[in-house]
Sequence to fold (171 residues):
Amino acid sequence: MKLYEYIQQGGLIMYILVLLNIIGFAVMITKFWLFNKEKKNTGNVADEIKGRIHGSNEKDMTALIEISKQEVASYITHVEKGLNTVKIIASISPLLGLLGTVIGVLVAFQIMSKQGLSDPTYFAQGISMALITTVGGMTVAIPHFVGHSYLLGMLDALESKLEKEVLTRVI
Fold:
């Protein structure tokens, strides 16, 4: 059976899962690229932050360090935008798969109540839909959980590197 036929058998839930998968991978690929680019650009960003901090006329070292950390946190918040989308997709995909499972079993029982078990192929279609959407939900969720975790690690490394560079320039 071809992939498209599986998607068709899964019905609307599978089309939603495919759409979420495309969106999630687009976000993850973009974030991988952006984080790598930002990691190479930390020196320039640190200089920009240093310029903003020294423009504040603050002389107390503790205050300078605190302002530096706040500036880095603000910058990282800006860079991480969209990352939550991957987490949401990873979280709701199994639930959508489960919804498809429930719908498939419901359809199977409705067919069974109307036609009995004289022809099991009708009953099997509902069960098939249930299993396909379960697999679809897991297939979407697993790489998104892994990707989200990896991206968080990249983001933490970027933040640590940037903070170190900013503090080196400020102090």
User: Anything to note?
Assistant: The two ends are 64 Å apart (CA to CA). The helical segments are 3-10, 12-40, 42-54, 61-79, 83-115, 120-170.
